[in-house]
Write a structure and sequence with these properties.
Protein name: DUF3037 domain-containing protein
Organism: Trichocoleus desertorum GB2-A4
Number of domains: 1
Number of helices: 5
Strand content: 15-25%
Structural class: alpha+beta
Largest sheet: 5 strands, antiparallel
Radius of gyration: 17 Å
Pfam families: DUF3037
Helix content: 25-40%
Oligomer: single chain
Low-confidence stretches: none
Order of helices and strands: EEEHHHHEEH
Mean pLDDT: 92
Distance between the termini: 53 Å
Number of strands: 5
Length: 140
């Protein structure tokens, strides 16, 4: 059995109107302390967001999401949060908040490949479900 890596992840969400509690999953953030790994992958489906709030300023949302990825990278361009240790940056990103950009609870897993985990999470939690060719008919 290959050496498995313990990792933590959260789903990144956009909540256009917090009071309605509707959201669209737009990315994932994955942290693996043993590999000093912290990455956020964003796939923003603007049409899905606009379906929830047609007045949403998508440009601001893009900027906020870009900041999450920048904080993962760290360093001076990410500002004061970017200077924190990597694990602290992860905890800052996933801290509960009631703003337009939120994350799910943190989950833990084991894997042999962090890039594969990211793709799997994007496929299952962020990207729209693939159409099933089976049709359902209703009878009265």
């Amino acid at each position: 059995m290959p050496n498995l890596l313990a990792y933590d992840y959260a789903i990144i969400r956009v909540v256009p109107r917090v009071e309605r509690e509707e959201f669209v999953n737009v990315g994932v953030v994955v942290s693996c302390a043993s590999r000093k790994f912290l990455e956020a992958h964003i796939e923003l489906d603007e049409q899905r967001l606009i379906a929830l709030d047609r007045n949403l300023d998508v440009e601001i949302i893009r900027d906020y999401l870009a900041a999450v990825a920048l904080i993962c990278v760290g360093g001076e361009p990410a500002g004061p949060i970017g200077r924190l240790p990597q694990r602290d940056r992860f905890h800052w990103i996933v801290a509960p908040r009631s703003t337009v950009i939120q994350t799910s609870r943190v989950h833990t897993g084991l894997c042999s490949s962090l890039p594969h985990v990211i793709e799997h999470l994007l496929d299952t939690m962020v990207r729209p479900c693939k159409q099933n060719k089976t049709t359902v008919t209703h009878t009265a």
